[in-house]
Amino acid sequence: MTPTLPRRARRLARLVIVPVVLLATFAPTADAAQVGMVGDITWGQSQATVDREVALIKDSGARWVRANVNWRWLEPDSKGAIDAGLLAQYDYAIDKARAAGLQVLMPIADAVPYWASGDPNKHLDGSGQRVWNRYYPPARMSDFADFTRFVVEHYKAKGVHAYEIWNEPNTGWFWAPGPNAAQYTEMLKASYPAVKAADPTATVVMGGLSKSDFKYLEGVYRAGGGPYFDAVAVHPYTYGMDPTVSWNGTNAGEDPSRISFNAFPAIKEIKATMNAFGDSGKQVWITEFGYSTTTKAGGVTPTQQADYLVKAYRYVEQFPWVHSLFTYQIRNNPFYGDRDEFEGQFGLTTAAWQPKPAYAALKSYAATVPALPTEPLPTEPAPTEPTSVPTPSVRKPPKKPRLRAARVTRVAVVRHGRTRALTVYGHVPRALSRGARLRLELQRRTRHGWHKRGMPVRLRGTRYRKVLMSGQLRRGSWRVRAVVIAGGARKRSAFRRFRV
């Protein structure tokens, strides 16, 4: 997610906000958008946490859950070499969601493994560590298509029939070195036939666009991408603005005759673009949307979060072409520990499971939305699909062990031509027990707070040396810490801060 609103647009919005719709007070019709939820059930949580979160999502009244698979983590070392342990974690989460009666939207996204990356600067450093930009598109789109086909073949038997191809490809954060609609179209052209070959009934959703970026969508159509998706996904965050207000484009590159892509009502511009290119029969899926309750810039109060969220659902009732709206997210990002930061406060509950007013508000609204027909759960085990890895067993979560914190001893920023690489050094007090793992959390200060990403680390005895980033190391304030994880327990080190 990349919710932003340029300063000029925020000033304009405060001066000339125009309500665009009177919200209905009667019950939604059968055309109302389905209530979806973004969770963290495939983010490496313990089985106990997955169980609790699935139950919470079901209780909220949501009928869909968005649960991603990460290409870089699931096929990390070579083509066809699937990480069976991670696959087992994904399977557990999806099985729990389906058993709870939830439909699953599965983005196939997040990052490209080293072996498949098209980054022209990827290399092995002096100690054999891989250095590459994880968001550079693959060198061969056929590699992504083959991985996509494996995922679809594996999960169709579990009742997953909706797949989102990548995430926010119109941002430099998820598509390096910058957005390229023609390149992304090649990904669609490769993966769409792979999905349909594995599951002809599946719905292929174009990767959720950050904001209602109709200009990028036009670029996909002009590159010939129209036949290679069944629906368009958008993430129309408003940076704290009421979703029922609208203004025309005022920023550089925006068309002043069309609604600004920063306004929630710009979903109408997405649909207008689809109609203009002959896709009037396709729907729009809002696969991320929500409000942060941070007290910092871009945040809203808990009461406003509840009000604005329900307003958004009621606003889209007038558009039968909006299939669903997925709230981001069911609880505060667990990796932030309820800190007062923009990225960490989108939940309908706290990370410690305490409900905010928005949880009850959405639950009340969801109870009024007619359900669409759903696929019945299988009454007997589905046949096993042949895969390149054995079907992993699922174990009960172990008791939380006592953990000792790892250390970050040194941070080095090294230039490689025009790029910079970040290397982190550290150690753990003793060799990790079986099942424990080490993860580094890298954070960069932005105007919205600290933007965070996490990366797994392989130990050599009790020491580690990890190249965390190359290419996208922007100037500014950074910090990094080490996290030891075992079962549901986490032990974090102190932050090591540095500037670039």
Short description:
With 500 residues, this protein is α/β, with parallel strands linked by helices.
Overall description:
The chain is an alpha/beta fold and 500 residues long. It is 24% helix and 24% strand. Helix 9 links the parallel strand 12 and strand 13 (322-328). The radius of gyration is 22 Å and the shape is globular.
Individual helix count: 10
> Can you say what the CATH homologous superfamily of the largest domain is?
Glycosidases
Helix content: 10-25%
Question: Any idea how many domains?
Answer: 2
The name of the CATH architecture of the largest domain is Alpha-Beta Barrel
Globular, elongated, flat, extended or rod-shaped: what is the shape?
globular
Question: pLDDT average, as an integer?
Answer: 85
Q: Report the major sheet.
A: 8 strands, parallel, barrel
Q: Radius of gyration, rounded?
A: 22 Å
Assembly type of the shown chains?
A: single chain
CATH topology of the largest domain: TIM Barrel
**Secondary structure: number of strands:** 21
Kindly report the spatial arrangement of strands forming the biggest sheet: 2-3-5-8-9-10-12-13
What is the CATH C-level name of the largest domain? Alpha Beta
Low-confidence stretches: 2-26, 378-400
How large is the share of residues in beta strands? 15-25%
Which structural category do the helix and sheet elements fall into?
alpha/beta
Distance between the termini: 24 Å
